[in-house]
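Question (not urgent): is this output format expected?
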Amino acid sequence: MSKKNNSIILILLIIFVLIGIVLLLFDNSKIKITLDTGDFELYVGESKKINVSINPDNDYVINWSSSSSIASVDNNGLVKAIKSGTTNIEVSVDGVIKSVRLTIKDVLITSIKFVNSELTKSVGESGKLVPIVSPENASNRDYIWSSSDNNILEVDNGNILAKNSGTATIT
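Got this back:
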């Protein structure tokens, strides 16, 4: 083998060794992210702090994100449920990503009462029914109003109109 070939082989060998050293120094595949929770559920309005541990322990920059607008997560891992649905909460460190799935549920209404549970109205008179919802943090407040007899009492979005004499129930 010629000296020129030996020099080329030596140069290639040095380049491969240097590449290997660079790859070892910047290899982030050794980073392991552990979260203190798996997939979880929250109700609209609730919050949960997710704690993260990183191995090897170092002064890494930790980035948190939510894959949709139904939840927010701050720089400390505090997740806030905004509206119902499913999203991923992700934490990333030097290109390594760990995520958990969050399901957000509506807070369901358990009871509805009215400020004035019994009303007396003359024909042609109108009024407004004001619902009192329990629990107070119920997330779905889309009411479906109905009258047991629209010929006697008509209801539209809580507004009532007495049309004829008689008794009717609003639900």
